[in-house]
Amino acid sequence: MAKLHIKKGDMVYVNAGNDKGKTGKVLAVLTEKNRAIVEGVNMVSKHTKPNSKNPQGGIVKQEAGVHVSNLQVVDPAKGGATKIGRRLNDKGKLVRYAKKSGEEIK
């Protein structure tokens, strides 16, 4: 299992596919499939049977996974898409930083 540059809660930019140019928050990361679920991106229609939560059943819109190679983290300082680097901070802890601005990503 490879280490991914995207974590849950990150703001990401979609750089390929039908939703190219959109930004959204990462809701979940599926490491075994190298995919991430991004809020409002790659919406699919799911047909559901009637159940206690949805007694009528019907068609529900929900997000599907996007491959992590099609996502870039948004720079917290400059606001655009940026590459991610890793370095030791002043406390000796490995942290992610934006290569565009050099700012640490929380």
What are its keywords?
10 strands, 106 residues, six-stranded antiparallel beta sheet, single chain, 44% strand, SH3 type barrels, elongated, two-stranded antiparallel sheet, mainly beta
Summary of the model, kept short:
The chain is an all-beta fold. Helix content is 0%, strand content 44%.
Number of domains: 1
Radius of gyration: 17 Å
**Which stretches of 5+ consecutive residues score pLDDT under 50?**
none
Largest sheet: 6 strands, antiparallel
Q: How many strands in all?
A: 10
- Gross geometry: elongated
CATH-level-2 architecture:
Roll
The helix fraction, in percent, is under 10%
Kindly identify the CATH topology: SH3 type barrels
Structural class: mainly beta
Q: How do the strands of the widest beta sheet line up side by side? A: 6-3-2-1-7-8
Topology order in helix (H) and strand (E) letters: EEEEEEEEEE
Distance between the termini: 23 Å
CATH class: Mainly Beta
* Count of discrete alpha- or pi-helical segments spanning 4 or more residues: 0
* Mean pLDDT rating: 93
Provide an overview of this structure.
- The chain has 106 residues and is mostly beta strands.
- It has a single domain, classed as Roll (SH3 type barrels), CATH 2.30.30.30.
- 0% of the residues lie in helices and 44% in strands.
- The protein has no helices and 10 strands.
- Strands 6-3-2-1-7-8 form a 6-stranded antiparallel β-sheet, with no helix packed on it. The protein has a two-stranded antiparallel sheet with strand order 4-5.
- β2 and β3 form a beta hairpin.
- It is elongated.
- 19% of the residues are buried.
- The model has no long low-confidence stretch (mean pLDDT 93).
